[in-house]
Write a structure and sequence with these properties.
mainly alpha; Hypothetical protein af1432; 67% helix; 0% strand
Length: 196
C-alpha cells in the first residue's frame, strides 16, 4: 500500500481526532509486534492503519453496507461496537485497493477475533488493544511483559479476552457467543502449552 498524504488525509477527515491517533498508534504498534514475531511489518502497518477506517460511520451506514455486501454471522450484530470491523475490511478493499487477504482478514477480525487466528491476525488484534497513543498505559505495560514470556502471544490474547469479558459484564452488555468460544479456545491453548 502506498502511504500517501491522500490516504492519511482521508483517515484524518473521516475519523475523530482520537480515532485517528489511535489508528496511527495501532499501525506503529502492529509494526513493532510484527518485527518481534517475525511477520511482515509493512503489511502489519497497513492493517493497523486501516483497521478502524469505518469506525466513525453511523450504525445505519454500517448495517446498510453489511446487509448489501457482506456475510456476517447474526451473533456479530449483537453489539454495535463491533460492526465497523467487517465494514473496515470492506472499505480497505474497495476504497483503498487492499487485495492482500492476510491484511483484510486481520482487519475483519480485529474486534472479536476468531478461532484459529494466525500470528498476523493476533498481532493486529493485540495492537488495537495496546497501542500507546490512546490506550491505558498500565494495561499496555502488563501485556508487553506477558509477550516476553514463553507462549506470550497466546497468553496476551487470553488476557485481553478476560478483560473484555469483565468489561462487558460490568457494563451489563451482551457477550457474543463467538467471544466465549474464542476465550475457551485460548484457555485450552495456553493450558496445553503450559503442561508440555
Amino acid at each position: 500500500m502506498d502511504y500517501t498524504n491522500k490516504v492519511l488525509d482521508w483517515l484524518k477527515n473521516n475519523l475523530t481526532e482520537e480515532r485517528y491517533e489511535h489508528s496511527l498508534g495501532t499501525a506503529e504498534c502492529a509494526k513493532e509486534l510484527a518485527e518481534k514475531f517475525h511477520e511482515d511489518s509493512n503489511k502489519a502497518y497497513a492493517a493497523g492503519l486501516l483497521h478502524d477506517c469505518a469506525k466513525c460511520f453511523d450504525n445505519e451506514k454500517l448495517l446498510d453496507i453489511i446487509h448489501k455486501n457482506l456475510k456476517v454471522d447474526p451473533n456479530e450484530l449483537m453489539n454495535y461496537k463491533t460492526l465497523h470491523a467487517p465494514v473496515s475490511a470492506y472499505c480497505a478493499h474497495n476504497d483503498f485497493g487492499i487485495c492482500d487477504d492476510e491484511i483484510l482478514s486481520a482487519i475483519r477480525w480485529h474486534t472479536l477475533g476468531k478461532q484459529d487466528m494466525t500470528t498476523f491476525e493476533k498481532i493486529i488484534f493485540l495492537a488495537d488493544k495496546i497501542e500507546p497513543n490512546t490506550r491505558d498505559k498500565e494495561y499496555r505495560e502488563k501485556i508487553l511483559k506477558i509477550l516476553d514470556e514463553d507462549n506470550g502471544l497466546d497468553k496476551a490474547i487470553l488476557t485481553c479476552y478476560k478483560e473484555t469479558i469483565k468489561s462487558l459484564v460490568k457494563r451489563n452488555l451482551k457477550i457474543c457467543p463467538i467471544t466465549i468460544d474464542i476465550y475457551n479456545k485460548f484457555i485450552d491453548i495456553t493450558n496445553s502449552k503450559e503442561c508440555k
